[in-house]
Amino acid sequence: MAVTGPNLTAEDYGYRLPDHWLLNEDSATHFPIMYHAYVDKVVELVKQSGAQTVLEVGCGDGWNCGKLVEAGLKVVGIDWSRKGIAYASILVPGGQFYCGDVRDTEFLSRFPDLFDALIFVEVLEHIPPDDCLDALRNITSVLKVGGTMILTTPSINFPNNNPHHYRHFDEQTLRNLVAEAGGLEITAIEGYGDVRYEARMYKRLRWCENRYFTIKPLRRAILFKYKDVCSRTPLDRCSGFILTIKKNA
């Protein structure tokens, strides 16, 4: 369901701090574990594609780009947040970063060669529904024919309580969107996160963390087990999707 309210702007993603770099898997929530799991999967898929050059559209503060650089890839990140790009440039010296849009003449002149791979991680939900199709067409214009795009986005299985998310997606909506974009083929679709396990997990966490006491070792053990179930999740209970997409034309 789309979020009603004002359109989001760059100011809504101010990055007062490099938030993704501060996520701690020992926190009291499952999100850092899930986030690191799907980012690791994205990097693995890019490496498996044989890509040498990769563009991240919506790179934010550069955490994902940093993981790609560590994997030995030549990385470019683009985002509309100036602070996000400033953090990325400092924290990922091995990457190149640009604040703006892939259609910008300056961007195209700085990076004239098409990319082997492109990642679009947790961005589609931030785009107004009527603009998603054009967004896919625009960003894939800088991807080589035969290149790979990895797209991740939240599932409708996971309630949309985020004021920065216009909507969450189901599998068929994503398949229709990619098909309508033209020249793209979904070669694989996987789930990440597990909404059913997460609900049970938080019930268990109440027994070891409440207003009276916290049993940190038990809390850590419960959260650590989540690592085993938050990858390759069945699509009917996943928190989000990971799509591997090939550009055919």
Give a description of the structure:
- The protein is an alpha/beta fold and 249 residues long.
- It has a single domain, classed as 3-Layer(aba) Sandwich (Rossmann fold), CATH 3.40.50.150.
- The chain is built from eight helices and eight strands; from the N terminus they run H-E-H-E-H-E-H-E-H-E-H-E-H-H-E-E.
- It has an eight-stranded mixed beta sheet, sandwiched between helices.
- Helix 2 links the parallel strand 1 (53-57) and strand 2.
- The protein is globular.
Brief overview:
The protein is of the alpha/beta class and 249 residues long.
Overview features:
22% strand; alpha/beta; Rossmann fold; single chain; 249 residues; eight-stranded mixed beta sheet
Coarse structural class: alpha/beta
In total, the number of strands is 8
Spans of at least 5 consecutive residues with low confidence: 1-6
Helix content: 25-40%
